[in-house]
Design brief:
Layout: H1 11-36, H2 42-48, E1 51-54, E2 63-68, E3 71-77, H3 80-87, E4 111-115, E5 126-129, E6 134-136, E7 143-144, E8 150-152, E9 164-168, E10 171-174
Antiparallel strand pairs: 1-10, 2-3, 3-4, 5-6, 6-7, 7-8, 9-10
GO molecular function, one term: quinol-cytochrome-c reductase activity
Family: Belongs to the Rieske iron-sulfur protein family.
Catalytic activity: a quinol + 2 Fe(III)-[cytochrome c](out) = a quinone + 2 Fe(II)-[cytochrome c](out) + 2 H(+)(out)
């Protein structure tokens, strides 16, 4: 029977492997900052990153406030009564005519998503207030209905709608 010879690792082999490992770690440590600097700044990400909103915990009739790109957003879970009242309005009688169906996504009439600043001077209107149970701007008296449309007061236009999409029936993505 022939014996197979196995070479015993030498000190030189160990030093060669250890030097290679330290060199690889050194190269990675030097390259990391160069690669990381190519990523966008955290402020840039925060300024424009889309925001996902889980709609499931929002009770019917509740208005949730959040910020996207530094701007206030209202997400309102409208009741069937609020939807009916908004749909029955004579659009021609509005200062800024817009149908309720144009302000919500098809099949999701219960969800209204609007910017949360009055279009007059940028004040924050109070929810579930005013003659139409929509929003009331306490500063100058602008009154918005449950669709965010201007009904009375100095505001020239309806509450704007941010860009958003339904990711699922219970989640939206703003931005």
């Amino acid at each position: 029977m022939a014996e197979t010879a196995t070479a015993e690792p030498t000190r030189r082999d160990f030093l060669f492997i250890a030097t290679g490992a330290v060199g690889a770690v050194g190269v990675a440590a030097v390259a990391w900052p160069f690669i990381a600097q190519m990523n966008p700044d955290a402020a840039t990400i925060a300024a424009g990153a889309p925001v996902e909103v889980d709609l499931e915990p929002i009770a019917e009739g509740q208005i949730v406030k959040l910020f996207w790109r530094g701007k206030l957003i209202f997400v309102r879970h409208r009741t069937p009564e609020e939807i009916k009242a908004a749909e029955e309005v004579n659009v021609a009688s509005l200062p800024d005519p817009e149908a309720d169906s144009a302000r919500v996504k098809e099949g999701h009439a219960q969800w209204l998503v609007v910017y949360g600043n009055c279009t007059h001077l940028g004040c924050v209107p109070l929810g579930h207030a005013g003659a139409y149970d929509g929003w009331l701007c306490p500063c100058h008296g602008s009154v918005f209905d449950t669709s965010g449309r201007i009904r009375q007061g100095p505001a020239p236009t309806n509450l704007p709608i941010p860009p958003y999409t339904f990711v699922s029936d219970t989640k939206i993505q703003i931005g």
